[in-house]
Design brief:
single chain, globular, five-stranded parallel sheet, binds iron/sulfur cluster, Rossmann fold, about 170 residues, alpha/beta
Length: about 170
Amino acid sequence: MSFLSKLLFKNKTQDIVSGNSDSILIKGDELRQSVDRIFGRSLFVRLVDTGSCNACENELSALSNPYYDLERFGIKFVASPKHADVIIVTGCLARNMLNPLLKTFENVPEPKFVITAGDCPETGGPFKDSYAVCGPVSKYLKVAMHIKGCPPEPEAIISGFLNFMDIVKISF
Ligand code: SF4
């Protein structure tokens, strides 16, 4: 391998390890600017799992790993709904999770928004005919954005956040 190929290979490898692929950087840059403009530097997100198979949570967790490093684009997951701007809902909305979901939403300060991640909260997904499911989430809360997929991949979730920014900028 020539010196130049070695150098190119090394840079490419570093990009792959650090999540600096072109599409992630382009979307991330756009996201960073929208978050700055609309939410004032950061968007805080509270996750509510209403009965998922955990695959959606795995994809959401991957956003915090060193590859995607979502926080560099201004989006941070928080523990308390009182600190959140947005709740992101996963799972098919099991009956016993309806009250916790509504209470969490109640505790988010205004202006507040709901995003769903995965097909389950939007349609019930593979669990829609179960007696234990009372979804979809849109029956109880106004949903600003549905991120589709079973589960949605991390990059699809980043695209979902970008689409969400387009929707909320109209209401600001
Ligand atoms: S959308 Fe698919 S991956 Fe996500 S919780 Fe439902 S079944 Fe699991």
